[in-house]
Amino acid sequence: GDGKTYTGTITIDGGKRSTGAETLTIQNVNFVAEGQWQSSIFAVKNTYVHNITVDGCSFTGTDAKQAYGIRLHHAYNITVKNTTGTKLYDLVYGQTAVTGLTAENVTVTDSGMGFMLPYGKNLTFRNVTLNVSGAGVGIYNYNASGAVFENCNFEGSPAVHLEQKNAANAYTLTFNGTNTFTGTENGEWLKVVGTDAQFQAVVNDTSLDMTKTSGLVARIGNVYYNRFADALAAANNKETIEVLQTIVLTENGTLDLKGATVKATENVVNAPVFRVLSDVTVTNGTVDGTPGN
Question: Whole-model pTM?
Fold first, then answer.
């Protein structure tokens, strides 16, 4: 693009093939949206696009923030790097499955959201900066997969949002390097919604404040779970499960801790580790509680 400005839409038609070796690179273009809900790069609905790289581009939306940078359908192996966006609804919106997306050295400011990927699989965000009013990265678990965040700086409401849409699909968030995540609503930077699907967060970044998250109920070491049953299933003999909120027991029967120790964290001060609302017996383990257990 030689740094030229383009006000139209680049439309990509990948045909009816779910596999493809073709490649497309869009480089050094300054995209400027002239109309509401315009997409600067648009993958045609009901087609499949493969191996697309957007490099060194800028995307400018509208004052109302009602324009998309890149809108995708059935997309595979997408790379967005060295790119900026401003005044957008989303920089990248995946309306259907986006499998294998890498964002690197990307900055989005003064926008609604950064990346909205309801069907996102195998996602990587590296050195990405987002300053948006809505979710920085929004993911629904229509597919079972995971997302990796490394050396990112997000400010949003929340910075990262993972929501259950399919109870059968597990999803894992992994945080590497050193990240800075800020939630503009109640300080909550990570919001995990749903208790039927198996969600977990692998936190290799010790700088993250995990008390400013919601939807995670227990952890073993640096792995956090949205369901106590998953943490218990993952615990080896004599491992410690730390609960982040009171675990409510509602089913009759026996809860076998399998030799594990269940311990309260600072989130469960002056509150019970377990609240029993049924006829249940807790066996084969240790409950290390705080006052009130």
Answer: 0.93
